[in-house]
Design a protein that fits this description.
Blueprint: H1 14-24, H2 29-48, H3 53-73, H4 80-106, H5 112-135, H6 141-161, H7 171-188, H8 194-240
Helix pairs in contact: 3-4, 3-5, 4-5, 4-7, 5-6, 5-7, 6-8, 7-8
């Protein structure tokens, strides 16, 4: 009886007319309760989705930050064994940073919590490492200032121009993140000899990429803002016309 209205059922039994009648009565009080129930169920699913594997990896990075700092500063901060453990914690944080974003995008696990917590976790572990290294005298403070200043400045810039659009992550930005991670990881380890020299040049490359990609983001933000303002003016002129 699919597609036959209840009124057309004539003298048929209620069993035959019940299904079409309920399907046709979309505006009835009984039908109104179903969408409300559906919304509640959807909200429950969304709330539960916060505890997906991508967000759990992000939470792990946040938890690793104080543990990493404790390991870095243990026994005065110069014990090779403690520094190796600190490197392991830093490496885990960097690896999970690669996986959580990929999992979230691939399996549609993107949540509001992840959007906020993921960049915070990234900057927290990197900032903690840089500050610890500078406090221990292993890394000049100006290097820490350049890297952290760039990260904070670009984050604020994204919020300023978000009304006009989103600045996408570039290949240069991803290369910068990778180079920073490798350089900082090498400084965390108690390296000597040619490896100590190598880490200097890797960090130099990371600083250069940090500055260059930062300037490129500023350029993109300026272009995005100009285009957004031009589009709004054009829309306003069309409305007035």
């Amino acid at each position: 009886m699919t597609g036959v209205p209840a009124s057309a059922a004539g003298g048929s039994s209620q069993a035959k007319g019940a299904a079409p009648a309920s399907a046709a009565a979309d505006d009835s009080p009984g039908a109104a309760k179903a969408p409300r129930g559906g919304k509640l169920a959807a909200a429950a699913v969304n709330q539960a989705s916060v505890w997906n594997v991508a967000n759990l990896l992000t939470m792990l990075r946040l938890v690793l930050v104080p543990g990493f700092v404790a390991l870095m500063l243990a026994d005065g901060g110069y014990d090779p064994a403690w520094r190796s453990l600190a490197w392991a914690a830093f490496a885990i944080a960097m690896i999970t940073d690669l996986f959580d974003g990929h999992l979230a995008r691939t399996y549609n696990l993107v949540t509001d919590f992840g959007k906020i917590a993921d960049p915070i976790a990234d900057k927290a572990i990197m900032g903690a490492a840089l500050i610890c290294l500078s406090a221990l005298g292993d890394l000049p403070w100006w290097v820490t200032g350049v890297i952290l200043g760039r990260e904070l400045g670009i984050t604020l810039l994204r919020f300023v121009v978000i009304r006009y659009g989103v600045i996408p992550a570039s290949r240069g930005g991803k290369l910068k993140t990778l180079t920073q991670g490798v350089a900082v990881g090498m400084y965390i380890l108690a390296l000597t000899g040619w490896l100590a020299t190598l880490r200097f040049w890797v960090m130099a490359a990371a600083v250069v990429l940090t500055v260059v990609t930062g300037l490129d983001y500023v350029r993109q933000a300026i272009v995005l803002r100009r285009r957004g303002i031009a589009a709004r003016k054009a829309a306003a002129e069309e409305t007035e016309a």
